[in-house]
Amino acid sequence: MKIATVSGSLRSQSSNAALLDAYRILAGDGADFDRVANLELLPHYNPDLDSETPPEEVTRMRDRVLLADLVVFSTPEYIHALPSVLKNCLEWLVSDPRFYQKPTVILHANPNSTFALSSLKEVLTTMSATIIEDASVVISIPSNKITAADILESPEWRVALEKSFVIASEIVLQARSRPD
Ligand SMILES: Cc1cc2nc3c(=O)[nH]c(=O)nc-3n(C[C@H](O)[C@H](O)[C@H](O)COP(=O)(O)O)c2cc1C
Q1: What is residue 145's predicted lDDT score, i.e. its pLDDT?
Q2: Ligand 1 centre and the CA of 77: distance in Å?
Q3: Ligand 1: which residue has its CA nearest to atom 22?
Q4: 3-class secondary structure, 33
Q5: 159: which residues sit within 8 A by CB, 6+ positions away?
Q6: Model pTM above 0.90
Q7: Cβ proximity of 100 and 32 under 8 Å
Q8: Are 109 and 31 in contact (CB under 8 A)?
Q9: Which of 57-62's residues contact partners 24+ apart within 8 Å by CB, and which partners?
Q10: Alpha-carbon distance 156 to 67, whole Å?
């Protein structure tokens, strides 16, 4: 199973990236992970450029996200909204038919930042992605100075992420075994 992870934070010590990294570590050999980073390299979305031959960075990002069986998002909230880099990435993805019914999981690190969480859900729903709600987890990480190792030290967070991975894997594998 191929899993693409997308963090809405560009920060080198991002807690959202740490959460996605913890997810990858917990999955072990259970999946092939691809962290789709450097969202800042994507040009600003422009319908004029969204043609048969979009910018190279866009094609590369789309292939990485859309060839995955599952896409796992984790994002901070900036000014009660999604960070612009993540929204920009999603704008580039919406016109690609491969995003239709793409299984997605939302991890969320800060229970106080509800605008970003509800906004991401709304955007993904509008894009006709399939959000695996039972695998989407909110984890009360109190600080943005945290590493994947710190996250994995907490039995509560570990169990929540493990459970999320098991549920998401089952749903993806079931979907793959169904005839079209
Ligand atoms: C420009 C900016 C705006 C922010 N706005 C909000 C906000 O509206 N609500 C909130 O809960 N946190 C807000 N925060 C805090 C971040 O969401 C929080 O620090 C988050 O953990 C950062 O994620 P990261 O560690 O992955 O970079 C903001 C941070 C920055 C830098």
Answers
A1: 86
A2: 5
A3: 76
A4: strand
A5: none
A6: yes
A7: no
A8: no
A9: 58/92, 61/36, 61/89, 61/92, 62/92, 62/93, 62/96, 62/98
A10: 32
Residue 159 · residue 22 · CB < 8 Å:
no
- The residue assigned the tokens 């990858």 is 24
Mean pLDDT of 89-108: 96
Instruction: Please report the DSSP string for 56-118 in residue order.
Output: HHHHHHHHHHHTSSEEEEE---BTTB--HHHHHHHHHHHT-GGGTT-EEEEEES-TT-HHHHH
CA distance linking residue 30 with residue 155, whole number of Å: 20
Taking each helix axis as running N to C, give the angle between helix 84-94 and helix 114-126, from 0 to 180 degrees, rounded to the nearest 10: 10
For the chain, give the number of residues: 180
The 10 Å CB-count burial string (b at 16+, else e) for 122-143 is ebbeebebbbbeebbbebebee
pLDDT digits (tens, 9 = 90+) for 49-86: 999 999 999 999 999 999 999 999 999 999 999 999 99
Who lines ligand 1 at CB under 6 A? Answer: 9, 11, 14-16, 76-80, 110, 112-113, 144
